[in-house]
Amino acid sequence: MVILFFARMPVDLYYVPGSAPCRAVLLTARALNLNLNLKLVDLHHGEQLKPEYLKLNPQHTVPTLVDDGFSIYESRAIITYLVNKYGKGSTLYPEDPNARALVDMRLYFDIGTLYQRFSEYFYPQVFGGAPADKDKLTKVEDALKLLDTFLEGQKFVAGPTLTVADLSIIASVSSFEASDIDFKKFANVKRWYESVKTSAPGYQEANEKGLDAFKALVNSMMKK
User: Fold this and answer.
1) pLDDT tier at 8 (50, 70, 90 boundaries)?
2) Thinking of the domain 11-86, which architecture would CATH place it in?
3) What residues does each domain of the chain span?
4) Are strands 64-67 and 11-15 parallel, antiparallel or unpaired?
5) SS3 for 191?
6) What is the dihedral of CA 161, 165, 169, 171, to 10 degrees?
7) CB atoms closer than 10 angstroms to residue 155
8) Where do the GST N-terminal domain residues begin and end (predicted)?
9) Could you tell me if 214 and 178 are in contact, meaning their C-beta atoms sit under 8 angstroms apart?
10) CATH 1.20.1050.10 describes domain 97-222
């Protein structure tokens, strides 16, 4: 009898180490014990605008995941896809409709409010040399107050267990360390932040190394 073994195609991740959305994907892969084939995208030299990359992702953003020919972009879509495909039954993205809806709400809060407001406040300073806008800072702090409220009486952002919502949001919030935003003045956020840093698998490798790269980029840009 002949037994055929078919090797699974590698899962490619096109990424930039300092990017918070990319770090969220790396954190999720580590939590799933999934090895990704990492492909660095040189944004400075416009690799994201080359035809071969645009074919994968017309929005020319990072991260982009390619799994057996299927291309997916937007980090929060990627991390839920990874759990759906490679982590069946995992509490990272629970199958119960109510529990999953809560995770989804937190993910949408991250992309539409928390990280969005941080981006609008901080990135014009880093990449455009703009002065800090106090009104935009207030909006970031309002988002942090909401996060603090979500965490009242909760160990994690979507309930008692670690989920992809925590991994996405900690990638975002950790990026605040490169700015003047004092997120640790919010007691629940500070407690949660320290807890996820010690409970998320491979946190040092998957997030802190990239965070250091982001801080270095910010320092170099702000000196110009």
Assistant:
1) low
2) 3-Layer(aba) Sandwich (3.40)
3) 11-86, 97-222
4) antiparallel
5) helix
6) 90
7) 15
8) 9-90
9) yes
10) yes
